[in-house]
Amino acid sequence: xxxxxxxxxxxxxxxxxxxxxxxxxxxxxxxxxxxxxxxxxxxxxxxxxxxxxxxxxxxxxxxxxxxxxxxxxxxxxxxx
Amino acid sequence: xxxxxxxxxxxxxxxxxxxxxxxxxxxxxxxxxxxxxxxxxxxxxxxxxxxxxxxxxxxxxxxxxxxxxxxxxxxxxxxxxxxxxxxxxxxxxxxxxxxxxxxxxxxxxxxxxxxxxxxxxxxxxxxxxxxxxxxxxxxxxxxxxxxxxxxxxxxxxxxxxxxxxxxxxxxxxxxxxxxxxxxxxxxxxxxxxxxxxxxxxxxxxxxxxxxxxxxxxxxxxxxxxxxxxxxxxxxxxxxxxxxxxxxxxxxxxxxxxxxxxxxxxxxxxxxxxxxxxxxxxxxxxxxxxxxxxxxxxxxxxxxxxxxxxxxxxxxxxxxxxxxxxxxxxxxxxxxxxxxxxxxxxxxxxxxxxxxxxxxxxxxxxxxxxxxxxxxxxxxxxxxxxxxxxxxxxxxxxxxxxxxxxxxxxxxxxxxxxxxxxxxxxxxxxxxxxxxxxxxxxxxxxxxxxxxxxxxxxxxxxxxxxxxxxxxxxxxxxxxxxxxxxxxxxxxxxxxxxxxxxxxxxxxxxxxxxxxxxxxxxxxxxxxxxxxxxxxxxxxxxxxxxxxxx
Lengths: 80, 549
Fold this sequence. Notes:
The complex is a heterodimer of chains A (80) and B (549).
Chain A: E1 2-10, H1 13-25, E2 29-38, E3 41-49, H2 55-63, E4 67-74
Chain B: H1 3-13, E1 18-21, H2 28-34, E2 40-43, H3 47-61, E3 65-69, H4 73-87, E4 92-98, H5 114-118, E5 124-127, H6 134-146, E6 152-158, H7 159-163, H8 183-195, E7 199-203, H9 206-209, H10 213-223, E8 227-229, E9 244-247, H11 254-262, E10 265-269, H12 275-278, E11 289-294, E12 308-311, H13 314-320, H14 328-340, H15 354-364, E13 370-373, H16 377-385, E14 394-395, H17 406-416, E15 422-427, H18 438-443, E16 449-454, H19 459-468, H20 484-490, E17 495-498, H21 504-513, E18 518-523
Parallel strand pairs in B: 1-2, 1-3, 3-4, 4-6, 5-6, 7-8, 7-10, 8-9, 10-11, 11-12, 13-14, 13-15, 15-16, 16-18, 17-18
Pfam family, one (chain A): ACT_5
Protein name (chain A): Acetolactate synthase 2 small subunit
InterPro entries (chain A): ACT-like_dom_sf
């Protein structure tokens, strides 16, 4: 299942490294990533693919100190 | 005030009286600031020893543990203790020196990207880039380590920032706020509790983190609910509690595992359905609905779905549970299980029987003694056969399972609690992993007691080789161990070797009555295994037992 997330994080490189590490380690394959800086924040739009329920990722991301907000937009699975 | 002086000043202001560490080039200004400071530094003989001493200090008190290391190898040596603290939710502050800012990224001498390295083994981490940020970062780091679900926080401080003038800025710590309990979840839990015929409380390490033993015991005493504990929770349920079934899981008691498999409601209190607890997850407590109490929302539903989730501090969520009294028929069943599967100590051989030794040690130690373990067979025997009155009295590397944990953790615990007896129980494999810390015991005249259960093997690995690898004993023979009593004597620590069952009682008396450090080197049967055992892939009621072998 593919999911799109938008994540607002502190605009520090280490914050990006930290949340990408969490996504990888928790078993979510990154398929797309866009990152834009505004004021003190990076707005990250990411698409991940995994068989696991997405809340296993969103709850972990929400715990990170630099993460301000996590929004989930679940994508329809493409017909084969 | 320099950055280094500011660090020491802030630690003192926050009530940190003792720290553990090892100096080196990139942290020299901090060690200079320590000289004559009110914060007492304990020099260990390896940075991993400093990390685990800080873990032992934190786990035996609930206070923040603090450790220092230099850049590069100093910091890499700390990593195992950080990972351990992360897995077991231990409040730890690690301060590492870093090469000067201008040298970062140049592959300078003793330079490692410590911030990058810390990502997978800390709750949060920082590298200080400006001296003016130091005060705020340090205060936030201490707050983070202790708040919510506790954990290790690392602050990497380049040498030039340690030397620079750093202003003190009071940081307004956020009041610790917990999520509000959702009334709909509380109501669902109430219905589940009222309908349950066979409830079991599954108690985890969260009880210690939340300092919620009193709330837990009040709940258990009112409901009379049978209780099982994780390795880390041992001591949370008082040993006098009639329906305490002890540890569950891979080496849990049969009564605990069968009760959980039979229950229709599992009240998970600050635990996380770890794989060593559940065995085959699909078959774990398969007849049960789950009420999950935890401060960390990421743990709820991570491994097993919950029918009701109470996400907040356990001090609030446990009293919110309605108190229905457990039905008598289920309690009878549980008591029958407890009697039928009680531990036996009538060992037929003449050799030292480790479970008996540990049971007797537990009985003879003062009530609030601290026991630290290493990892392996001895660790499971401690969990099975010793009794604890508080989780801060049983320090065992749970999630990470780190050999070498016990001796330095005991040092930290003894420094934190000088009024209590501290005993480390180790194996002949584990003790060698941080044996250098005998020097720290001697240097500080710490009365740490040491019990080495020596089967001249990496016993737990050997047991698995015997059971699951067709007896191919690859690299588990340690029959060339040193003479441990002689080794301890080199560090000025007295002790004795025992080889027969009839020597156990006197040796324990000697150890318990000694005023300084003391070592018992107990030679046990090299074929003795830990039972019961849930084999890989099996359900928890499909235990292998000694009788069946």
